[in-house]
Design a protein that fits this description.
The protein has 209 residues and is α+β, with helices and mostly antiparallel strands. Helices cover 36% and strands 29% of the residues. Strands 1, 2, 3, 4, 5, 6, 7 and 8 form an eight-stranded mixed beta sheet that branches. Helix 3 (34-54) runs antiparallel to helix 4 (80-98). The longest helix has 21 residues, at 34-54. It is globular and about 45 Å long.
């Protein structure tokens, strides 16, 4: 493939990556029949996907009970609103899941991690379930932040907080040491939107406070 063709297929840009998973999923499903597990996952994934898509995100993949979504890959590019939409989606998903029983029986708790940074985007793959659509260390950072998030919270990296500070209210948390990082990561808990553009609150299920 020529350099020109590669440039058309891939581009470098900034995105926000969101990871969400169910707290204690392994122990929850350990004794359940596989059909019940499937029903639980179907309800969970459907809720997450609906809110992510309404908020302008793209579902990259499912990994067990985790969902990875990407914001800012569209033609409009990346900006504070794309990152803020990702944070609002995290808050909205948790609110939606608090109000339902998965598979008609199970109330679940979740944790969400978001990170913002530069990636290489595979333009052709930048769609729902376009596996490996992005490449960059921000993916592993978001996954690790999600793993360190307190239950039922949305936590973000310093870059996400900095770009969305006028749009989202945050609480600073103690820095965390994560595997593979030579220094502690600053951590912020998203509390609520501070200003929501017209229409976004209705789409994502979160209103301005």
């Amino acid at each position: 493939m020529t350099a020109i063709a590669m440039a058309e297929q891939e581009r470098r840009q900034t995105v926000t990556v969101l990871f969400i998973d169910i707290v204690g999923f392994t122990s929850l499903v350990d004794d359940l029949d596989c059909a019940v597990v499937r029903a639980l996952q179907r309800d969970y994934f459907a809720t997450v996907c609906e809110v992510v898509r309404a908020g302008g995100g793209v579902i990259e993949k499912y990994v067990g009970d985790a969902v990875m979504a990407v914001f800012g890959t569209g033609s409009g590019g990346f900006g504070p609103e794309a990152a803020a939409s990702a944070v609002r989606v995290g808050l909205s998903v948790q609110e939606a899941l608090r109000g339902q029983l998965l598979a008609g029986r199970f109330a679940v708790r979740t944790r969400v991690g978001l990170a913002t940074g530069d990636v290489i985007v595979d333009v052709a793959a930048a769609r729902d379930f376009g596996h490996n659509m992005i490449s960059g260390s921000v993916v592993s950072t978001a996954a690790r932040l999600q793993a360190y998030a307190p239950h039922d919270t949305v936590v973000v990296c310093a870059s996400t907080q900095a770009v969305t500070d006028e749009l989202i209210a945050y609480q600073e948390l103690p820095p965390v040491r994560v595997a593979g990082k030579p220094y502690p990561l600053d951590l912020w808990r998203a509390l609520q939107p501070q200003r929501v553009p017209a229409g976004v609150g209705q789409l994502c299920g979160v209103g301005a406070e």
